[in-house]
Amino acid sequence: MLYFTVGDGFFITINNQPYEEFSAGQDVTVTCEFVGEGGKAAQPAWRDPDGVIIKPSGTVSSDRHISTREVSPLVTELTIRNIQPMDSGVYTCHVGSSTNTLTVDLQECIYPCQNGGSCVDGSCNCLDGFTGQYCDTPVVECVVPCENNGQCVDGVCMCADGFDGNLCEISVGDGIVINIIKDSLGPHQSGQDVVVTCDYSSTVRYQQPAWIDPQGTSVQPNSQGRLRSIAVSPSSTQLSISNIQPTDSGVYTCYVGTRSNTFTLTIHDIEFSCQRNCVNGGVCYQGICECPPSFAGASCEFQLSGCDFPCANGGICIEGLCACVSGYEGDFCQTYGRYY
């Protein structure tokens, strides 16, 4: 990398070896050389980004981290040992009233952050889905959340003491095993019906398993609401939630004696966008424009107006004319057309 300033009969060169970008931890040496007429010659001097003259190494006031060395009457070296981001800035070489500059723009991270990560204070901040010192390791998530405080590690649930199963859904201890049996693994979407069974096995007879909702309220058996519990057998109780909504999300707990097991309801609704913007007061819902009563069309672009006679066979009156569904024709969609 070579920088030079050209003046009247002289030029000042700045040269660093090797020709590569600086990186944290390196020892960097840069030379400033005056080449020109003898009357203008002088020993080059270096200033740091704050404008302070950098003393030669070995002097009492020199900074051992950053120092200079007079190689010859026309050449002065600048050395920065173990260069760090704080050393970034513009270093200036002076020869009389003439100057040349070297800009040090050091990457804060020793190696570039990968997969969209950003370097902050020398460390990589990774986007969701990646981890590691340089964001180079994909995060393998568990498809279904681990129950009972289990931790997902590389896509596998690592269970806490007293729990077992692929999802840590089995409570084991004190001579009793509590199983949580799901009708589907999920994740679920709004509007679905969910049924989960809590079943225990033990040599000791316990009371009927009881469900508690995320707010700590007992789920009443055989109630008529969306949320209810159903005694299937003396050792099994179902939790039934119909037409689930986001507000139903949370941890449901099944108690058998003093032991418990949990079921986590997670709702991931898929948002569908409409291909075209809904107009005339239409609202996009699940990818379809829901139009006000006086408008119709894929984007509610047609205003409905009265037709002389009602449109038949599913036809829609648009601006005084019947728009027929496929297979029908006529002024009022009254004729079924057969095409050969």
How does this structure look, described?
With 340 residues, this protein is mostly beta strands. The protein folds into 3 domains: 2-104, Immunoglobulin-like (Sandwich); 174-265, Immunoglobulin-like, CATH 2.60.40.10; 283-336, no CATH class. Helix content is 0%, strand content 41%. It is built from no helices and 31 strands. It has strands at 2-6, 10-16, 28-36, 45-47, 66-72, 75-80, 89-95, 98-104, 118-120, 123-125, 130-131, 137-138, 151-153, 156-158, 163-164, 170-173, 176-182, 194-202, 210-212, 227-233, 236-241, 250-256, 259-265, 283-285, 288-290, 295-296, 302-303, 316-318, 321-323, 328-329, 335-336. A 6-stranded antiparallel β-sheet has the order 15-16-17-18-21-20, with no helix packed on it. A hairpin with a 3-residue loop joins strand 1 (2-6) and strand 2 (10-16). The radius of gyration is 38 Å and the shape is flat. The mean pLDDT is 81.
Q: What attributes characterize this protein structure?
A:
mainly beta; Immunoglobulin-like; 3 domains; flat
Number of strands: 31
Shape: flat
Averaged pLDDT: 81
Head-to-tail CA distance between termini: 79 Å
What is the radius of gyration computed over CA atoms, rounded to a whole number of angstroms?
A: 38 Å
Low-pLDDT runs of 5+ residues are none
* Top-tier CATH class of the largest domain: Mainly Beta
What name does CATH use for the topology of the largest domain? Immunoglobulin-like
SSE blueprint and pairings:
Elements: E1 2-6, E2 10-16, E3 28-36, E4 45-47, E5 66-72, E6 75-80, E7 89-95, E8 98-104, E9 118-120, E10 123-125, E11 130-131, E12 137-138, E13 151-153, E14 156-158, E15 163-164, E16 170-173, E17 176-182, E18 194-202, E19 210-212, E20 227-233, E21 236-241, E22 250-256, E23 259-265, E24 283-285, E25 288-290, E26 295-296, E27 302-303, E28 316-318, E29 321-323, E30 328-329, E31 335-336
Antiparallel strand pairs: 1-2, 2-3, 3-6, 4-7, 5-6, 7-8, 9-10, 11-12, 13-14, 15-16, 16-17, 17-18, 18-21, 19-22, 20-21, 22-23, 24-25, 26-27, 28-29, 30-31
